[in-house]
Amino acid sequence: MNTRKVVITHALRSPMGALHGAFAGGGPVVLGVEIVQALLRHAGLKPSVVEQVWFGQARPDPEQGNVAGIVAYRAGIPVEAPAFTVTLGAASGLQAILVAARAVLSGEVEVALAGGVDCASSVPRLAEKGMEAQYGPGGLWCSLLQEPCGMAAEHLAARFHVSTGAMLEFARLSRERARTARVQGSLDAQIAPVHVRSGKEISRTLRSDEYLLTPPDPPPGFPFRPNGGLVPGPSVAPLADGAAAVLLMSKEEALRRGFKPLAQVGLGRASGEDPRFSALAAVSAARRVLESSGVPPSSLDLVEVGETFAVDALLCVDQLGLDRHKVNVLGGDLALGHPMGATGARMVVSLVHEMARRECRKGLVTISTCGGLGLAAAFFRFPLSGGDIFSMPAIEEIKTPSRKPAGARRKGGDRT
Question: Fewer beta carbons within 10 angstroms: which end of the chain, N or C?
């Protein structure tokens, strides 16, 4: 029986940059390198400690290639540590974290780094600055249904009779919570300041989410339908540029290094639904996680739900029977911006920091992608005596080949 447990010891994200904003001149590699280096500095670890890298990116540049490999190399991680890019839409960053966690769980590695990075400003289809272009015609496109990605929100609102007022109120609350969190300093622990570059020169440093500094002015509605639709503009998350990453270790490795983990990684589950109603996949994925973990929704302390569209989040809350006071308590994509492939990782970073701050025990992240796929994962903290907060049975057990010899460690693997 595999009794290994996987923990997140450190987690950081960049400030979310506005579309065509502060980070527009840098690109995803620059952002990824900054957040990886900040994470390693925060942990006090040499890059050579990292044995495997996974990064999510929703819309990779075909000429760029493996963004995870480029980020890892430029961040100083040895070339012997394999680096992989996950492309799974908005769920890319969350999937990268789960795959890396499985590598640690299986004993393949002791230390992995995972996250997501994306720059909407670098996507050719989003060259126009108007928010109407982001999810409507000429913007992000669902190849499966041959229609704008924004139509999924319209389909949901029509099928479930979600009112304009409900969508606007959810969006208002998300932005209010994020502004309050920023003023109170609740976001500080999770954000690593990022340099803003003008050419090769550093012009300034961004320390807060750009949309919270200068809120976007969305149009009254988005042209998802030729004759007008149901989804009001303020209930749609603006696209953003950003990166987020976590350090994953076996519990034993974390304790050996003297780290106090933020959370233990629990089950991750994926699910598919009718692509016209893609947000329902986040609901079914969450149900699979909760049922397999034996955790009723009512016992969750904190939940991060994807809110590319307010209607998506509303459906998740209602269908799962979640307590709205526990959902996206620091605000979500509607307030911070939606950095596509980095969103899932950003949600994990936000969740585990807030779980630690509030001393919560059970958390959930769930998100859907354009095309009808959903992904969810559980995270746990169990404060017990003796300083070991992870003495519970393993969340997930996988039969694996025998582990490599204990002495086979990478050179330079000690903490600085």
Answer: N
